[in-house]
Design goal:
heterodimer; A: mainly alpha; two-stranded antiparallel ribbon; 14 helices; B: alpha/beta; six-stranded mixed beta sheet; four-stranded mixed beta sheet; 21 helices; 16 strands; 46% helix; 14% strand
C-alpha cells in the first residue's frame, strides 16, 4: 500500500469514527425526548411494581409498621381456602363473561354496522349502559334479581313458578354478577368491533359479491379474517378487565354466599383495608398481577401464531 | 426560557396547593347517612328524627352557637373505616371521627388516636358519668380515648298485632321464649296462627347481624369464647346449639329468607313477620309507623331486649363515640374540638331519641329518657349489656368472618361443624398475624 493510499485510508477511518461518535451523540440527545415519559413510567409503574413485590415479603400495615417474613405470605395464601376459592371464582367469572362479551359485542357490531338513523340510535342505546357508575348498575340489577317483587321474580310468578333468589344461591350468584357485568360492559367491545368493521376494504366485499359468495361465506371468509386482530385485542382487554372484578361483587353479594362470588380483588381489598394485613394483601396482588400478565401474554402469542399461519 | 420557568413555577405552586384548614376550622367525619335535602341548615334538634336528622341538626346547632368555629362535615358511607385508614396512612386525618366502641382498640394500639381525658375534664365532661359499658370501651391503658355518645344492642322488634293473633300476648305484653325449645315452639305456633314467619331477618348480603345474635346467646350461656383475646373458641357445644337453632328456624321456614337489610326492614314494616332482629336504631322509625292508621304495625309495635334463652340475662352491646385522630392542630382547633365534644355530651338525651341507649348514666336514669316510647323496656341493657373484651382487636373483620360462616351454615351451604371449624381457623389466623 502506498503512503498516499495509507493517508487516505486513515482519513477515511477518522471520518467514520467521527460520524459514529456524532451518531452516538445524536442518539443520546434523542433520549431527552423520551426522558419525561421514562421518568413517569419508572416512578409510577416500574418502582411500584418492585416496591409491591418487596412489601409482599413483609408483615405490614398501613401505618409504617413492617417486619420481613420472606415468603410466608405466599405460603399462607397457598393454604388459604378463601383465597383459593377467590382464584377459582375469578377464572369462572372470566369464562362466563369474556366469550359472551366478545361474541355479543361482535354480533351487535355486525348488526349495527350501517349508516341508517336507527342503527346510529341503537349504537347509542347499547353503549349507554357503559357510562353508568357501578353503584347505579348494581342497584338496578339488584332490583331485577330481588326475590321479593323483583323484575325476574314477577316474571317467574307470572308463569306460575317460584321466584329464584339469584344472589343468595351459591350456584347462581356469580352468573348473576356476570349477566350484570355483560350488560354494563358490552359497549366497549361493540365499539371496537364497529371501528374494525369500518376498516375492512369495500373491494373485498365487492370481489366476494362477484364470486357469488353468500352472507355466511362472506362473514367467514372476508369479515372475520379481516378483524381477527381486533378480536384478539377485545379478548385481551376483556380478560384483563374482568380479572379486576370488584364493585359488582362487593355491592351485590359481598362475596357470598359461602365465598361463592368473592373475586380476587375483593379478597385483596378485605385483607388490606379491613384487616390491615397489607403484606398479605399485596402478596395476593402479586399473584393477581402474574395471572393477568400470563393470560394477556398467552392471548397475545396465540393471536400472533395464528396470524403467522 | 422565561416562559418555561414560569410554567415550572406554576406547576410547583399548584402541586403544593392542598386543601388547607383555616386555623379555626375543624373537620368532622361521620357516618349515619346524609339528609341535606331534609335537614340542610336546620337547627331545631327537638324536631329532628332519625340518626341522620338528629346528628345534622346537632352539628348545625353547635355551629350556630359557636360562630367563631368553622365546622366542615364530611359524611362517609358506614362504617367509613377504609377511608379513615387511608386518611391516616396519608397523614391527613379529620379532627373528629365517629367510631364504634369496638373499633377503638385497633386505632389506639397503633397510636393513631389522641387521649382526651384531661381536656374533657377541663371543659366539664366527667368520664365517671359514662355508663359502665361506655367507660370500659373508651378506657385504654388508664386513659380515655373517645367521647361515647351511645350504646346499642340487637333487639326484638315485635309486631304485636300478629302476636295477639298467635296468642302470644299476656297483659298487653308479648310472651317471649325462655329457652331455644320454647322459641321453636312459639315460632311454630305463630306460623300456624298467622301464616307468617315468626322471625324477620336480613340474611342476604349481611354478616354483622348473625354475629351479634351469636355473641348475645353465648353471653347468656356464660360461655367465654374470647377467654384469650388472641384466640377465639367456636368449636364447642355452646356455639353449635345456637347455630343449630337458627338452622332449624331456617329449615322450617320460620324466618323470612333471602332478604337484605333494606328488604327485611321494609318487610317488617309491611307485615312480613312477627319479630325483626335488628338494633336499637330502628325504634324511632317503627314507633312512627305504629302511629299511622291502617298499617300492619298500627297500634301494635313493641320492642324488647333479646329474650333470656339461657341462664344469664346478657346482651352483646357496642356503641358509638367521637374520637380524635392524632395530628398537629392549632390551639384554636383544640379549643373548638373540646367545645364540640362538650356540646355533644350535654345533648346526649337528644341523641338518645334515635333509639340508642345514652352513654351517660344520668340520662338513662332521667325521667325524660324513660318517658320516651319503649325506652323503659330496654333501659336495663345499659347494665346487662356487655361488649367483647376490649383487648380483642379487629372486631369488625372478626364479626364479618363469623357472620359469613354462620350464614353458610344456617342457609345450608355447609355443615354447622364445618362452618365453626372454618370460622375458628379464619379468626385465629387473622389474630395470629396481627403486626
Amino acid at each position: 500500500m502506498s503512503a498516499a493510499a495509507g493517508q487516505l485510508s486513515e482519513l477515511g477511518h477518522t471520518r467514520v469514527q467521527s460520524a459514529r461518535a456524532g451518531a452516538q451523540q445524536s442518539r443520546w440527545s434523542h433520549m431527552l425526548y423520551v426522558a419525561p415519559f421514562l421518568f413517569l413510567y419508572v416512578t409510577l409503574l416500574v418502582y411500584p411494581l418492585f416496591a409491591g413485590f418487596w412489601l409482599s415479603l413483609h408483615k405490614a400495615d398501613f401505618f409504617g409498621g413492617s417486619r420481613f417474613v420472606g415468603l410466608e405470605n405466599f405460603v399462607r395464601l397457598s393454604n388459604d381456602k378463601v383465597f383459593i376459592g377467590a382464584v377459582g371464582n375469578t377464572f369462572y367469572f372470566i369464562l362466563l363473561t369474556v366469550p359472551a362479551l366478545a361474541i355479543i359485542g361482535l354480533g351487535l357490531a355486525l348488526a349495527l354496522n350501517r349508516t341508517t338513523r336507527t342503527a346510529a340510535f341503537l349504537r347509542g342505546v347499547f353503549f349507554s349502559s357503559s357510562v353508568l357508575s357501578v353503584t347505579i348498575v348494581t342497584l338496578l340489577w339488584k332490583v331485577v334479581f330481588a326475590p321479593d317483587g323483583g323484575f325476574l321474580a314477577n316474571l317467574f310468578e307470572a308463569f306460575g313458578k317460584q321466584p329464584v333468589a339469584f344472589l343468595s344461591d351459591a350456584d347462581l350468584a356469580l352468573p348473576a354478577i356476570a349477566i350484570t357485568t355483560i350488560w354494563w360492559c358490552i359497549g366497549l367491545p361493540m365499539m371496537l368491533f364497529l371501528a374494525a368493521l369500518q376498516q375492512v376494504p369495500r373491494e373485498l366485499y365487492e370481489a366476494a359479491a362477484l364470486d357469488n359468495a353468500g352472507r355466511w361465506k362472506t362473514l367467514w371468509n372476508v369479515t372475520l379474517p379481516s378483524i381477527r386482530r381486533t378480536f384478539a385485542l377485545v379478548v385481551i382487554i376483556e380478560v384483563v378487565l374482568q380479572f379486576q372484578l370488584f364493585g359488582q361483587a362487593y355491592l351485590m353479594t359481598q362475596g357470598g354466599p359461602n365465598n361463592a362470588s368473592r373475586p380476587l380483588v375483593l379478597f385483596i381489598f378485605e385483607v388490606g383495608f379491613t384487616r390491615w394485613d397489607v403484606g398479605y394483601a399485596v402478596a395476593a396482588g402479586q399473584i393477581l398481577f402474574g395471572l393477568i400478565a400470563i393470560a394477556a401474554m398467552a392471548q397475545y402469542f396465540v393471536a400472533r401464531r395464528k396470524e403467522a399461519f | 426560557m422565561r416562559r418555561l420557568l414560569a410554567t415550572l413555577l406554576g406547576c410547583v405552586v399548584l402541586a403544593s396547593c392542598g386543601v388547607r384548614q383555616a386555623p379555626n376550622e375543624i373537620v368532622v367525619q361521620r357516618f349515619f347517612g346524609t339528609c341535606k335535602a331534609e335537614y340542610g341548615n336546620r337547627t331545631d334538634v327537638g324536631n329532628a328524627e332519625g340518626e341522620c336528622g338528629i346528628m345534622t341538626t346537632l352539628i348545625n346547632e353547635f355551629s350556630a352557637q359557636n360562630p367563631d368555629v368553622k365546622v366542615r362535615v364530611s359524611p362517609v358511607a358506614w362504617p367509613g373505616y377504609n377511608q379513615l385508614a387511608a386518611q391516616l396512612a396519608s397523614g391527613d386525618p379529620p379532627d373528629l371521627v365517629t367510631m364504634h366502641l369496638s373499633a377503638i382498640s385497633d386505632y389506639q394500639s397503633r397510636k393513631l388516636l389522641e387521649p382526651l381525658g384531661n381536656e374533657l375534664r377541663a371543659v366539664g365532661v366527667d368520664p365517671n358519668g359514662f355508663t359502665a359499658a361506655s367507660l370500659a370501651s373508651v378506657s385504654k391503658q388508664g386513659e380515655i380515648y373517645g367521647l361515647p355518645i351511645d350504646n346499642w344492642a340487637p333487639l326484638w322488634h315485635i309486631n304485636m298485632n300478629y302476636f295477639r293473633q298467635a296468642g302470644l300476648v299476656k297483659d298487653g305484653k308479648p310472651i317471649l321464649p325462655r329457652s331455644p325449645a320454647e322459641l321453636l315452639a312459639h315460632a311454630r305456633q305463630f306460623k300456624q296462627a298467622t301464616g307468617k314467619p315468626y322471625l324477620v331477618q336480613a340474611l342476604a348480603n349481611e354478616r354483622a347481624a348473625y354475629s351479634r345474635n351469636l355473641y348475645t346467646l353465648l353471653m347468656q350461656q356464660g360461655f367465654d369464647f374470647f377467654a384469650d383475646p388472641q384466640r377465639v373458641k367456636l368449636q364447642s357445644p355452646e356455639v353449635k346449639q345456637v347455630l343449630e337453632m337458627f338452622r332449624q328456624i331456617y329449615v322450617e321456614d320460620l324466618t323470612t329468607k333471602n332478604q337484605d337489610y333494606a328488604a327485611a326492614t321494609n318487610g317488617f314494616i309491611n307485615g312480613a313477620g312477627g319479630v325483626y332482629l335488628v338494633g336499637t336504631w330502628m325504634i324511632g322509625d317503627f314507633d312512627a309507623e305504629s302511629r299511622k292508621a291502617d298499617r300492619p304495625l298500627s297500634n301494635g309495635y313493641s320492642v324488647m331486649p333479646w329474650p333470656q334463652l339461657y341462664g344469664r340475662d346478657a346482651t352483646f352491646i357496642d356503641g358509638h363515640a367521637w374520637v380524635m385522630p392524632a395530628k398537629e392542630r392549632t390551639p384554636q382547633q383544640r379549643d373548638a374540638i373540646f367545645r364540640f365534644l362538650k356540646f355533644f355530651a350535654d345533648n346526649d338525651f337528644e341523641w338518645s331519641r334515635t333509639g340508642h341507649l345514652p352513654a351517660y348514666q344520668a340520662v338513662i336514669e332521667s325521667e325524660r329518657f324513660n318517658a320516651l316510647p319503649h325506652r323503659s323496656q330496654i333501659a336495663k341493657i345499659s347494665s346487662t349489656g356487655a361488649p367483647l373484651p376490649s383487648a380483642v382487636q379487629r372486631q369488625f373483620p372478626v364479626q364479618d368472618i363469623i357472620g359469613e360462616e354462620m350464614a353458610a351454615a344456617i342457609t345450608g351451604h355447609k355443615s354447622v361443624d364445618a362452618a365453626l371449624a372454618d370460622a375458628e381457623h379464619r379468626v385465629n389466623d387473622l389474630l395470629f398475624h396481627l403486626l
